[in-house]
Amino acid sequence: MSVVQSRRLLNIISLLGIACSISLTVYFYHLGVFNDMNSLQQLVGNSPLAGPLVFILIQIIQVVIPIIPGGISLAAGVLIFGPYWGFLYNYIGICIGSLILFLLGRHYGKPLIQHLVSDKVYQKYNHWLDDQSRFEKMFALAIFFPVAPDDALCLMASLTNISFKKYSAIIFLAKPASIFLYSLALLQGGSLLSHLLVH
Would 155 disulfide with which of 13, 29, 90, 105, CB 3.0-4.6 Å? Predict the structure, then answer.
């Protein structure tokens, strides 16, 4: 297979993957799983095998296609599967989604990133790209602490010279802390709100 043919095949596979992702997103959206925790629980909570796989797929989609509130699925993972399995499924889905996001950004470049990242967010973090070494440190901190737009920064990382190996290491090592802290904050906040509403 020539280089031209292999690139054409990769482009076809990429387009098919994007089409499948969009189709699944529309399907899950019509089911209401992205804005209704009860719908999400009904979809993934009934099967011990298919449920976790579907949930991980939903997490991948919510990372790659930024129209889904990730907080709902993060909290739902812990509520549906418990703190340990919920954390693991969240971690697997978010890490895979983050790797796909980087590869898409690296393949399609700045035009795709400007479509997926708002101009306000892009301009806010664009200056990070000026210094490669500084970017890697700031990026690692942003992934570790759940305070920055992780998905947007993952896309912007693809514009730098950071290797996929180093990027993957940052994701795998820094994501657990942010997922844990974010899930804990959501669950504690939800419990506090429920307590206040009841009383």
Answer: 105
Dist. CA 44–CA 55, nearest whole Å: 6
Tell which residue, 41, 117, 112, 49, has the closest CA to residue 77: 41
CA distances (Å), origin 24, targets 78, 80, 129, 142, 197: 23, 21, 33, 29, 35
Q: Do residues 137 and 170 lie in contact, with contact meaning Cβ atoms separated by under 8 Å?
A: no
Please check whether residue 162 is in contact with residue 51, taking contact to mean a CB–CB distance below 8 angstroms: no
Taking only the tens place, the pLDDT of each residue in 73-127 is 777 777 778 778 888 999 999 999 999 999 988 988 888 787 777 788 888 888 8
171 Cβ contact list (under 8 Å, min separation 6): 95, 98, 99, 143, 154
Distance CA 90, CA 176 (A): 9
Among 189, 197, 194, 187, smallest CA distance to 75 is for: 187
Q: Which tokens sit at 12?
A: 């076809």
The candidate with the shortest Cα–Cα distance to 90, out of 60, 67, 65, 47, is 60
The CA distance from 127 to 69, in Å, is: 26
* pTM (2 d.p.): 0.71
Digit-coded pLDDT (tens) for 127-155? 888 888 888 888 998 888 866 778 888 98
Tokens for 109? 């470049």
Residue appearing with tokens 């506090």: 192
Q: Are 173 and 141 in contact (CB under 8 A)?
A: no
